[in-house]
Amino acid sequence: MIHQVTKGIKISVDTNFEGSFYKNYKIHYAFGYTITIENQSKDAVQLNARHWEILDALNNVEYVDGDGVIGKKPVIEPGGSHTYSSGCLLTSPFGAMRGHYSMVNFSTTKNFEVTIPLFKLSAPFAIN
User: Domain limits at 55?
Assistant: First the structure.
């Protein structure tokens, strides 16, 4: 599991390989990930948006931006956490993801970014 703390917000990431399938005459590799966002600060915060860079072993990069996570903009109280699961498709059995969440601190009303650390995606059959 990968962990990183930015401005009192701890991001933990766990990944898994879901399988592969053919689509439009190309093989795709499906990966899942579970992210836990823990508020270790003294202020309530809200996650408003996300930015992802999804990289594969073929040097393809996909950028994904959107509101909240999984259709939610969670408010996380001090000492609280929010966990969600999602996934991505790659055209190679190896890759990685990284990004950031855009959040607001309710006490100061200031926006800030929380780093989502780089985490690797790899199909177990492709590892030596």
Answer: 2-122
